[in-house]
Amino acid sequence: MKIFLAAPIFSLAEREFNSKLAGELRKKGYEVFLAQELGVLDSSDNDIKRKLFKEDLKALNESDIVVAVLDGMEVDSGVTFELGYAYAKGKKIVGVRTDHRCFSPYEEVNLMIEVPSKIVRGKSVEELAEKIDNVIGE
After folding, report:
1. How many CA atoms lie less than 13 Å away from 82 in the CB half-sphere?
2. Buried b / exposed e across 21-47, counting CB within 10 Å, b at 16+?
3. pLDDT digits (tens, 9 = 90+) for 20-65
4. Are the C-beta atoms of 117 and 83 separated by less than 8 Å?
5. DSSP 58
6. Which stretch of DSSP H or E encloses residue 101?
7. Helix (H) or strand (E) holding 70
8. Across the beta sheet with 31-34, what order do the strands follow?
9. What's the pLDDT score for residue 69?
10. Is 84 within 8 Å of 2 (Cβ atoms)?
11. Residue closest to 30 by CA, chosen among 60, 68, 63, 79
């Protein structure tokens, strides 16, 4: 099964967390696409941007499921695009939260992300990978 791991990739902490989570999912036998492994955008070259965009969409189209890191008060804008695209394509979505902050008193994250997602919480990447595996198996 192919997992598209949608996650912010702009800080070292984010990239390290993403790598650890991808590693745990791979240990469980999943094929995981993680955009940061293509390289973090460090150029204003439009051809490079288009190439990364196309590779991202290709991986989304080929994925069976999307696992999205939803930490923070607001979900990363790139992740929200990927989630909307995945939903439009009929992909199953699992949201991952390690952050105890909520979007509002009524929503864990914005309802446009919360409603189509099965959200799991965990305190370690191992716990999260186990919960993701359980949701995929449902």
Report:
1. 34
2. bbebbeeeebebbbbbeeeeeeeeeee
3. 999 999 999 999 999 989 876 666 778 888 888 999 999 999 999 9
4. yes
5. H
6. none
7. none
8. 31-34, 2-6, 65-69, 92-97, 118-121
9. 97
10. no
11. 63
3-state secondary structure of 17: helix
At residue 134 the predicted structure's pLDDT band, cuts being 50, 70 and 90, is very high
The Cα 35–Cα 59 span in angstroms is 9
Comparing CA positions, the residue from 67, 64, 71, 12 lying closest to residue 36 is 12
- For the segment 102-131, the average pLDDT, to the nearest whole number, is 89
Q: Evaluate if residue 17 carries a pLDDT over 90.
A: yes
Rounded to whole angstroms, the maximal C-alpha distance in the chain is 43
Between 39 and 10, name the one with better pLDDT. Answer: 10
The pLDDT assigned to 100 comes to 82
Domains and CATH numbers, the chain: 2-137 (3.40.50.450)
109-122: average pLDDT: 92
Do the beta carbons of residue 10 and residue 18 sit within 8 Å? no
Residue 104 Cα distances to 13, 58, 119, angstroms: 25, 34, 16
Q: In whole angstroms, give the CA distance from residue 6 to residue 13.
A: 15
